[in-house]
């Protein structure tokens, strides 16, 4: 059958002299698009229609090609079709239910496609009649709820979720989808939770359920009270929260596995990731640029759960055997569409087998570890807006985690140790390697024993990505990019996360056995970049805010380091690094002093950095003459590190510092107003991607109809 014939719903020609015959269902569609009531001459019209195999393409095309005048003439028939679809969902005959669900999807898509510029009220009126819309949608949602919660076919439940995803994503901006008001009123929240709490249902439908919930939570979330937000925030049922976490965990795990063979791994932890996000932001030439499509839908679901529900934090920490998913590709089933990495749900085998037999040699894991691994992949290459936004979302999730007291306690718990392989981008001079001797440490720690930091390339304006802290420093490469503002926000978010972790350590007097030099080097490299690119950056950005955040991290160590640095030697090393890299701080002071003494828009923020540098400059000005004097007296042209440390230890008593207030205070994360625009665009992008991949044609009508024909 030719493509034209197929689209028109025509049967194969029997001979060249005869006209092609139309399928019966197509003839029935034509009757609906006529002016007359199709049931007028055939009382059994609607019963017969839903016994016919749906021709989605023909029905959608017909709806899209109807002109304005015809719409008014056939509106009653379209309303009647919608009404009878809803009624058919209550039928015992499963084939009728399948065909009704698919017809509803075609109606939603076809009508919206035809009326993109129409108001939501006009679309509602065309679909179901505005005066009857409330009752029609109430009936629809009740029947979908019944199908999702019932003991019926799993294929039917999958079809219901596909229909709901189709309905939610039918407009580019879900907040402009007026039909969703009825989905708010007639909530299916409990049905979604039931799916997530049941092992079997979760395995087959958990991914779609979680994505659907994440999208519904974002419907007009800044404009009105969204019941899905309210309900999600108070969920305290452990099996349900565990189920949601399991779906997210398995989805991220599968993508981590797919990436594992393409990229060498690095050891580290929560704090190592953050350190690298600051100082390793300068990645240079890589042997290969791996293009991995991120799963923003599942990240959004994780964000909403962490942000809205404090009970979900406990799910992040639940340990279980780490699953090593087989790398053998699985053959897609007829009901599963083929979509790019980052857009498909995890395999059913994983979802159906959350419990694995314990092995004494098996490494334990949890959702937080899996997320950190995923974030390390995302943050390797943020050269375009899509990946940069994914990295930004990862950092926002980490921000929410870092602000939670329970999460902080878990991250710093010496009794909860894990081995974490984080990914890093391959470099031309560096061969891929896998460290198999990673020690178990608290997640907030880095497991690195060697100092140093990578410098990674920057976009025009700000760091383009964050890899793991390692041992060498590379040249910075500036490449013109179109999204420097986002990069700046990403860098600041990262520094803020580190500050929040330090505040917790100071408050609870937690002394981490961490190579702090890695962090200090990373922060100094960030300052060096700001200084090197002052002219380019100041044309568009307030770089003084970021500089102030970095300087105040050093002030945090100077003022409160005795409460959280592991040993007195760590304090000595801090002063050593400040003195050793004094030229960076001197250059920063000269720059901010010059800007603050001139009139201009950056005068005030530059002045704040000037004042913040007072103790750093006091340390430099105090110890440098002592070191020079020591070298002169002992006739040493170049002092060793140990000799400098000896000078530092001997001259603490005469050092005078100023007490700075507010260093251990921070502004808590708030989505609105700062992140509202970001999330609106993110949800739009996710909605478009979900709509593209939700195609009921891929559910294989033949498979579905065969299944229900045998049942009937």
Which characteristics define this entry?
712 residues; mainly alpha; Leucine-rich Repeat Variant; two-stranded antiparallel sheet; two-stranded antiparallel ribbon; 6 strands; 2% strand; elongated; disordered N terminus
The coarse overall form would be elongated
CATH architecture of the domain at 24-218 and 696-711: Alpha Horseshoe
Report the CATH C-level class of the domain at 24-218 and 696-711: Mainly Alpha
**Rg value:** 30 Å
Distance between the termini: 30 Å
Number of helices: 32
Q: Care to count the β-strands?
A: 6
Strand portion: under 5%
Q: What can you see in these coordinates?
A:
The chain has a domain at 24-218 and 696-711: Leucine-rich Repeat Variant (Alpha Horseshoe), CATH 1.25.10. Helices cover 58% and strands 2% of the residues. It has 32 helices and 6 strands. It has helices at residues 3-7, 24-32, 45-49, 56-65, 68-88, 94-114, 120-128, 133-149, 154-168, 180-185, 189-197, 199-217, 227-233, 238-260, 270-279, 296-308, 313-317, 348-352, 367-378, 385-402, 405-411, 484-508, 516-532, 534-538, 543-564, 568-580, 582-596, 603-612, 614-633, 641-650, 676-693, 701-711; strands spanning 265-267, 320-321, 364-365, 421-423, 458-459, 478-479. The strands form 3 sheets. A two-stranded antiparallel ribbon has the order 1-4. α15 (270-279) packs across α22, α23 crosses α27 and α27 runs antiparallel to α28. Residues 484-694 form the Armadillo-like helical domain. This is Armadillo-like helical domain-containing protein. Keywords: Membrane, Transmembrane, Transmembrane helix. It is found in: Membrane.
């Amino acid at each position: 059958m030719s493509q034209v014939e197929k689209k028109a719903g025509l049967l194969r020609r029997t001979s060249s002299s005869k006209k092609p015959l139309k399928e019966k269902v197509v003839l029935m569609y034509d009757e609906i698009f006529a002016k007359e009531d199709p049931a007028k001459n055939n009382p059994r019209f609607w019963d017969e229609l839903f016994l016919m195999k749906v021709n989605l393409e023909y029905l959608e095309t017909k709806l899209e090609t109807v002109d304005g005048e015809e719409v008014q003439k056939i509106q009653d028939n379209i309303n009647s079709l919608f009404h009878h679809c809803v009624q058919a969902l209550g039928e015992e005959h499963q084939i009728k239910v399948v065909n009704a669900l698919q017809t509803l999807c075609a109606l939603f898509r076809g009508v919206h496609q035809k009326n993109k510029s129409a108001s939501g009220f006009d679309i509602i009126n065309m679909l179901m009649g505005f005066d009857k819309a409330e009752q029609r949608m109430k009936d629809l949602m009740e029947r979908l709820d019944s199908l999702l919660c019932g003991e019926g076919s799993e294929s039917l439940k999958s079809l219901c979720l596909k229909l709901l995803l189709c309905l939610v994503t039918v407009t580019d901006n879900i907040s402009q989808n007026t039909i969703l008001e009825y989905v708010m009123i007639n909530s299916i929240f409990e049905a979604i939770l039931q799916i997530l709490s049941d092992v079997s249902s979760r395995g087959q439908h958990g991914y779609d359920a979680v994505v659907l919930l994440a999208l519904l939570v974002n419907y007009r979330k800044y404009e009105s009270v969204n019941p899905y937000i309210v309900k999600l925030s108070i969920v305290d049922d452990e099996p349900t929260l565990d189920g949601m976490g399991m779906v997210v965990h398995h989805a991220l795990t599968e993508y981590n596995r797919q990436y594992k063979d393409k990229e060498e791994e690095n050891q580290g932890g929560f704090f190592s990731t953050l350190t690298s996000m600051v100082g390793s932001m300068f990645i240079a030439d890589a042997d290969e640029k791996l293009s991995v499509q991120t799963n923003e839908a599942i990240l959004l679901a994780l964000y909403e759960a962490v942000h809205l529900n404090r009970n979900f934090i406990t799910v992040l920490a639940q340990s279980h055997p780490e699953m090593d998913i087989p790398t053998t590709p699985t053959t897609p089933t007829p009901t599963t569409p083929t979509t790019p990495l980052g857009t498909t749900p995890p395999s059913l085998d994983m979802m159906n087998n959350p419990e694995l037999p314990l092995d004494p040699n098996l490494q334990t894991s949890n959702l937080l570890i899996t997320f950190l691994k995923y974030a390390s992949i995302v943050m390797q290459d943020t050269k375009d807006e899509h990946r940069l936004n994914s990295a930004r979302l990862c950092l926002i999730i980490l921000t929410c985690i870092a602000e939670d007291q329970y999460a902080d306690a878990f991250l710093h718990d010496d009794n909860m140790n894990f081995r974490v392989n984080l990914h890093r981008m391959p470099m031309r001079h560096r061969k891929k390697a896998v460290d198999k001797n990673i020690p178990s440490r608290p997640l907030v720690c880095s497991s690195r024993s060697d100092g140093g930091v990578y410098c990674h390339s920057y976009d025009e304006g700000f760091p383009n990505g964050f890899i793991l802290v390692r041992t060498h420093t590379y040249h910075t490469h500036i490449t013109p990019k179109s999204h420097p503002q986002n990069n700046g926000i990403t860098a600041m978010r990262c520094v803020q996360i580190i500050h929040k972790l330090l505040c917790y350590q100071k408050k609870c007097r937690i002394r981490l056995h961490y190579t702090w030099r890695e962090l200090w080097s990373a922060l100094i490299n960030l300052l060096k970049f700001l200084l090197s690119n002052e002219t380019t950056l100041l044309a568009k950005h307030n770089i003084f805010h970021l500089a102030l955040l970095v300087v105040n991290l050093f002030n945090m160590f100077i003022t409160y380091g005795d409460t959280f640095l592991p040993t007195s030697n760590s304090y000595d090393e801090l002063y050593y690094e400040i003195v050793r890299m004094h030229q960076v701080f001197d250059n920063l002071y000269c720059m901010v002093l010059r800007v603050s003494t001139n009139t201009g828009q950056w005068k005030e923020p530059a002045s704040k950095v000037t004042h913040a540098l007072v103790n750093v400059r006091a340390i430099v000005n105090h110890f440098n003459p002592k070191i020079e004097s020591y070298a002169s007296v002992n006739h040493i042209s170049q002092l060793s590190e140990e000799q400098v440390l000896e000078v530092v230890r001997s001259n603490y008593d005469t050092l005078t510092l100023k007490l700075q207030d507010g260093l251990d205070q921070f502004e808590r994360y708030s989505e609105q107003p700062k992140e509202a625009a970001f999330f609106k665009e993110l949800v739009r992008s996710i909605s478009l991607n979900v709509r593209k991949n939700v195609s009921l044609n891929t559910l294989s009508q033949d498979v579905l109809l065969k299944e229900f024909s045998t049942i009937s």
